[in-house]
Amino acid sequence: MSRITNSDFPKRGEKLTSTEINQVFTEVNAAFPLDGQNFRSEGLDQPQFALNNGHGKSGIILVAAGSNESTTPVTVDCNAGTYPTFDAPEILQTYSVIQPVENTEMIRVYWQFDFNNIVTDTIPVRDTDNNGLVWAVWLEYKTGSAPSAAWQPVPNQHDFEAPVDGTLGSPTVFGCNTQFAYGCTVYNHAFVLDNGGSTQVDTPPHRTAYGCWWYEPDATWTSYGFRLMCRGLMDQYHVSAAPFPVGNAFQLLTISSTQQTVINNNYLAYMVMRKQ
């Protein structure tokens, strides 16, 4: 069998004839034909996968899938209300779909969106101690088929306005403990930096973000719709003592200045899978 190696490649001025090229190609193709076996099976590093001869998937069966896209821009204003009348979060999109998930299955919902922020250079945004001000996006599901059925955050997510510190009956800080923000999207509002001894506030560029939520229910769980929600602004906070869960949290702030995030396009999709 002929071969071309680094030791006998064509020299300057030399040419390979079509006969020589065709001979090499014919020999290579005869040894490794681009057929179903080599392209489908040998094209993957099979030891990295637990394949099944029946369906070729790694022991997972796709039960259902769907998606929805919204191209309508949504402007979200920062919260200016105080407890118990916080400003309501904004709905980014609503996806009407009825999807049951059995206890032998798991569901994955993921979303993407592009956004830009409108930043006003005021306190608390320009406070260097608050360089962690963020917006939050989370997933909600509809609990029933009736038009009046309630919407609520999916399991392990939250709407970021629950009591997180203070005393029972008289909380002083509201937001969400990080342990209840599983899979939520959190993105920063502005960049605050020291520019030659003075504080500078920069607006982040137009960009994209994403989120992903997984759930394997203990019993049959049904969603009668999904929707994406957004609110802000929030700051980092640490709960140091009971009665509320100790640990890191997001604190929902009350801000009077104009601070906004604009969600331009957003896409949501889901898959329901069952183990083989």
Give the gist of this structure.
7% of the residues lie in helices and 46% in strands. It has 276 residues and is mainly beta.
Protein structure class = mainly beta
Order of helices and strands: HHEEEEEEEEEEEEEEEEE
Low-confidence stretches: 44-49
The average pLDDT value, as a whole number, equals 85
Shape descriptor reads: extended
Sheet of most strands? 8 strands, antiparallel
Beta strands, count: 17
Rg result: 27 Å
The helix tally amounts to 2
Percentage of residues in strands: over 45%
Terminal Cα span: 46 Å
| Count of discrete domains | 2
Q: Helical residue percent?
A: under 10%
Word description of this protein:
The chain has about 280 residues and is mostly beta strands. The chain folds into two domains: about 1-45, no CATH class; about 60-275, no CATH class. It is built from two helices and 17 strands. A hairpin with a 2-residue loop joins strand 8 and strand 9. The radius of gyration is 27 Å and the shape is extended.
Could you outline the blueprint of secondary structure elements for this entry?
Layout: H1 18-31, H2 36-41, E1 60-70, E2 74-77, E3 90-95, E4 99-101, E5 105-118, E6 134-142, E7 151-153, E8 162-167, E9 170-177, E10 185-188, E11 191-195, E12 198-202, E13 207-215, E14 221-223, E15 226-239, E16 247-252, E17 260-275
Antiparallel strand pairs: 1-17, 2-17, 3-15, 4-14, 5-13, 5-17, 6-7, 6-10, 6-15, 8-9, 9-16, 11-12, 15-16
